[in-house]
Every structure is written in C-alpha cells, then in structure tokens.
Amino acid sequence: MSQLTHLNQRGEASMVDVTEKDITDRSALAESSICMSAEAFALLSQGAHKKGDVLSVARIAGIQAAKKTSDLIPLCHPLALTKVAVDFELQPEKHSVYITAFCRLAGRTGVEMEALTAASVAALTIYDMCKAVDPAMEIGPTRLLQKSGGKRGDWRGDAPENS
Predict the structure, then answer these.
(1) Cα within 13 Å of Cα(123), Cβ side
(2) SS3 content of the chain, % helix, strand, coil (to 5)
(3) Rounded to two decimals, what is the model's pTM?
(4) Is 114 part of any known ligand binding site?
(5) Could you tell me which HAMAP family the record lists for this protein (predicted)?
(6) Omega of the bond prior to 141 within 30 degrees of 0, cis?
(7) I need a labelling partner for 92 at 20 to 30 A (CA). Which of 26, 48, 77, 144 fits?
C-alpha cells in the first residue's frame, strides 16, 4: 500500500525533500473539458465573443497557471518548466471544448500538478469569458492522462474519451 509522502516525522504536513532524488526527464499530460450552450459555442467557435479570442486567452492563462502552480497548491515544489503546451479541440456535436495540457522538465519531481493546473485554469478562463452568455457551463472531468520519468517510471491512464 502506498504511503502519503507529505508528512514529516511528527505526522505534520510538510514539503517533501527531493534533494537526494535523481534529475530525470519528466512530463505529464492532463485533460479537461467545458460544455456550453449552442449559443456560447457558436460565438466561441466563430471568434465572435465580445471579450475577444477566448481560446488564445485561455491558452496563455493555462501556461501562466502551470508556471505558478507552487503558488496555488500548498506543498508543491517551484519548478523550472522547460515546456508547457495547452491545446484545444472544438467538439461541435457536444458544444464543448476538449483541453489538453502538457508539461515537461528535467528535474527531481514530477509535473503532474502543473499539467492539471494548466488544464483547469484554461477551462476556468473559458468559463469566465463566456459566462455572460451561458452561466450554466460545465467543466470536467479533469484528470491526468499520462506521466513519464521519476522513480515510479511511466504511467498511462485510460485512453481519453474525447480525442
């Protein structure tokens, strides 16, 4: 059985010491989605929202969020990411946007939280920019699809439903 690792010898929450871990190439891919009304989707897909290019703003927000994950999630290590990519796939039949976020670095700890944060913030940014048209949008699921590197090696979840 796996043990939680963010506890110190007194059982208190603490940042994990990764000093002795090997530096390896690490990456993670996460997904999210946002489903909206036909009207909101039409405006988004046509680039006709009054607030501008929704997906470009959401991409930048996701990248910025990945870089600031340690400021948002307690006990996350600040990381020098070498790549962050946030991509979108419009799904007209569902009136939804499928979001993927990829993060990479050479370091002592993984980038799963950064990829998940990027995907989540991209979805939240789309919500923020489109909420005047559709406040009932639904975000999710948000989940890790795969990771590579580190002591535990590579991991891959189920194939994404939306890709």
Answers:
(1) 26
(2) 30, 30, 45
(3) 0.89
(4) yes
(5) MoaC_B
(6) yes
(7) 144
